[in-house]
Structure formats: C-alpha cells, structure tokens
Design brief:
about 100 residues, mainly alpha, rod-shaped, protein transport, mitochondrion, Tom22, transport
Length: about 100
C-alpha cells in the first residue's frame, strides 16, 4: 500500500513538471517575450552608442580646454602678478606727482 502511494506521488510530480514545462514553453514562445527581448537589445545598443559618443565628446572638450583655456588662464595669472608687482613698487617708491 505504501508503494502505490509513492507511485501516485511520483506520477503527480511528473504531471506537475510536465504542466510547468508546457506553460514555460508557451510563455517563452509568446510574441510579448520576443518583443521585450528585442526592446531590451535595442535599448542596450542605443545605450552603448550613447556612452561611446559621450566619451568622444568628453575627450574633445577636455583636450580643447587644455589647449585653449589653460594657457589663457596662465597668461591672465602672469598679468595679474605683474600688475600686483607694479602696484607694490609704486607704493614703496611713491607715485610721482
């Protein structure tokens, strides 16, 4: 008697697995799943392109800043130091009237 209950449990378990397999196949083959996968792949492609182009733009902006703006800042600082030095010398020597 115990063995017949064990067989029923085994057959019920295999029926449940069969049902789960059929349901998972029907869900995985549905058009909604295919559309979702396609949308995810398209979003990943667009994101990759966006990140790549953003990196290129950052590189261009950074090198332009280094080539054009940094020398300008250094020159402006030198000019300010020269002006400060002239003011300091003028205050020590006195301004001619």
């Amino acid at each position: 008697m115990a063995s017949s209950q064990g067989k029923k449990r085994i057959s019920a378990t295999s029926n449940e697995q069969s049902l789960i397999t059929r349901v998972s196949r029907s869900v995985s083959q549905s058009p909604i799943v295919h559309q979702s996968k396609r949308a995810a792949l398209d979003a990943a492609f667009v994101s990759k392109k966006l990140i790549r182009s953003t990196g290129k733009a950052a590189w261009i902006a950074g090198t332009t800043f280094l080539i054009l703006v940094v020398p300008l800042i250094i020159e402006m600082d030198r000019e300010q130091q020269l002006n400060d030095l002239e003011l300091q010398q003028a205050s020590l020597l006195g301004t001619p009237k």
